[in-house]
Structures are given as C-alpha cells and as structure tokens.
Amino acid sequence: MSQQIAHLEKKIGVKLFRRDKHSVELTNAGTVFLKDAKEILKRLDDSIANAKQAEEGVIGTLNIGLLSVPARDFLPQLIRKFRRKHPQVNIRLNYYHIGQMIEKLKSDELDIAFTLSLGLQSIVDWNTRLYGLSPIASFCIKTTRLLIEPV
C-alpha cells in the first residue's frame, strides 16, 4: 500500500501524507485530493447506475414520431400514463409527413411512431401494433357513412 501511495505522490507531484514514526496524517493536498477522489468515485457509481437504467429504458429520451391527426385524441393520456411509470424518461414529440417519418424510423432517429400504416407493411424488421381504427382513415369508406360519423 505504501508503495502505491508513494507512486501516486510521485505521479501527481505532491505529498498526500505526513509520516513520522508514530503517525500518518493527510496533508492539506491529501485532504483536497481525498475529497475530490470520493466525489469522482461517487460520480462513477452514479454513471454506472445511469447507464444500466438507460439500457433498461428507465431513464433517457423517448423520441416519438407523429402525424398530427391520428395521435391527437389518445396521445396525451398515453403520455401521462407513461410519465407516471417512467418519470426520468424525457419525451420528445416530433411531427413529420409520412415520408419523413419512414426515413426517421429507418435511420433509428425515432424510437416509436404513431402513423397511418401507409407503406409500413413492406418493412419487415419493424414491430408494428394496431392501436386503433378510424373510419375517417379508410380509403374505401362511402361518403354516406361519413355523414353519420360524429365530428
């Protein structure tokens, strides 16, 4: 241990301890160094814990891609519920046209997207889930059916 301390003192160029035959005590430089070293070790422990939490999705940023119309009704409630469960995750909402959104998804700039299914079926690696249906979104719907839909 004393060799390691001597090596450290030589490396940083200051005496960390005052030694005599009966005692060893920290010098002023040693006290400052010890305080800083403890803070660094604490930050290291915190950084490791944060990295593990980020890997698990407990902290970090969730980038969400949106088309303005489809998500308007359900998204605020969904975000509130998510924030209650994951308060340390920042949510970034990004509004795009469908073509932009597909490009952002392909380049991994988005974690999740709420969109129409246009063109997404051909992309095999993506996990997709149907969240809801809207008769207004149907291209096959008859105009007479739209007349009875609530506004």
From TrEMBL:
It comes from Priestia megaterium. PROSITE patterns: HTH_LYSR (PS50931). Belongs to the LysR transcriptional regulatory family. GO terms for cellular component: protein-DNA complex. Pfam families: HTH_1 (PF00126), LysR_substrate (PF03466). This is LysR family transcriptional regulator. It comes from the Bacteria. PANTHER family: HCA OPERON TRANSCRIPTIONAL ACTIVATOR HCAR, TRANSCRIPTIONAL DUAL REGULATOR HCAR-RELATED. Keywords: DNA-binding, Transcription, Transcription regulation. Residues 1-27 form the HTH lysR-type domain. The keyword Transcription applies. GO terms for molecular function: DNA binding; DNA-binding transcription factor activity.
